[in-house]
Write the C-alpha cells for this entry.
Amino acid sequence: MPKRKKPITSNSIPKTILFFFSVLQKISTVLTVKFASLLFKSPIKYKIPKREYLMDQKSKQQLVYIPKIKKQIMTYEYGEGSKKILLVHGWSGRGTQLVKIADKLLELGYSTISFDAPAHGKSTGSSTLMPEFIESILELEKIYGPFEYAIGHSLGSMSILNAIKEGLPIKKAVIIGSGDSVNDILLDFVSNLKLKSNIASKIRAHFEKKYQINMESYSAYIAAKSCNIPILVIHDKNDEDVPYTASENIHKNLKNSTLLLTEKLGHRKILGNEKVIEAISHFLEY
C-alpha cells in the first residue's frame, strides 16, 4: 500500500472537547481510550438544510427494522421510476443529503432509495459503526431491491464497497470522497483530538475485542479487490476531511474503475456540483 499523504487538519472540534482529552490522557490511558471510542462511534445529528426540504417532503418515509443489528432505520423512497438506485450518505449525514444527485436521477427516469443510517437523522440510537451501515444496505436490498446502481459519499462509499464484497448485486457504483484504510481513519481521529498516536491502536483493539471484528478488513482498498463491476471514483483534491490519495489507492485496487479528481469543491460541495452530477449521469447511462 503506497504511503498516504496526511490530510488537511480539521479545526471543527470544540475546544472544550480538546481540553477534556488533553487532561484525560495525562490522568488515564484506559479512560482516554474509553471516551475516545465513545466519541468515535457517536455521529452528530445535524438539522436538515433548506435545500433538502423538498426531498424530505416528497419521499415516502418508513422505519425499517434491520434484524442483524436489531435497530430501526428511516428509509426514503423518492420518485416513481421502476429502476431503483441506492444512495448512501456518510458519517453524520442524512438520507436526503444527496438530494441534487437524486433530483438528476429522477429526471433520467430512475427512483432512489436512501436511508438515515443507524444513529443518524430520524433513525434510532446514538452510536454506530460501519458494519451497521453495511448490514443496513444488504437488508434494504432484500426489501426494496433489486437496485440497478449504488452511489455513496464518504463512509457511505466505503460501506457500498464492502456490501459489494459481501454480495450486493448491482451493475455499477459511484463512490465520492471515500475513506480508505480504517487504521488511517483512526490515526486521523486521534490526531484531530491531539492525542498520542498509540491511542489509535488501543481504540482499534478495544473495538475488535468488543465486537469480534478485524477493523482493517473493512478498509476500502481491501473491499475494492473483490469488486468486479464498473465503479466511478470521485474525490476533490481540496477535501479537508478525507485526503484524495485515499481514492487514488482505492482506484488502484479496483479492477474496472474510472478516477475523477476535482478541485476547490471540498468534501461536501462536491455533492451538488453540476459537472460532477453530469459525470455521474453519463457514467450510469453509458
